[in-house]
Structure prediction request, 141 residues.
Amino acid sequence: MTIPCIYADFNAVLCAKKREGTSEVEMPITGYGTLQSLAQQGIRLTEGMPLLLFEPGDIQCEAFAHFDDQLTDPAGRVGAWVAVLNLNDVQDSTMPWPSDLHPCISCGADLRDHLRTHGSGYVEHCPRCDASVMELMAPPR
Prediction:
């Protein structure tokens, strides 16, 4: 099984929750870059999903997805996705940003113009099929 490569803003590590007695942190992965990266690959986050997080041309780290029901996501829903990663495993990365395409997970429509025009408020819906842009980061089923 190939581990999905997902964009992550490693600046979020500054507000990450540390796991006591380890060098592991729970870093939020709720940004639009992560959402776009998931949409490009047609991936919906699931509990325990292995991930390769990267910041293009900067750093990368293996992690796994965890849904923390004690947090609130940017759309105001109870719970938010975090990546559990070991800070000692962060390494240099030369991976480029793969594309600026942002497809709708439901109908495949390119959402870039819609998001630029209407802004990013974490509550957007596809103008073609009305699917939630945030579906890929929805709470586990």
Summary: Strands lie at 5-7, 17-18, 24-28, 50-55, 59-72, 78-86, 91-92. Residues 5-137 form one domain.
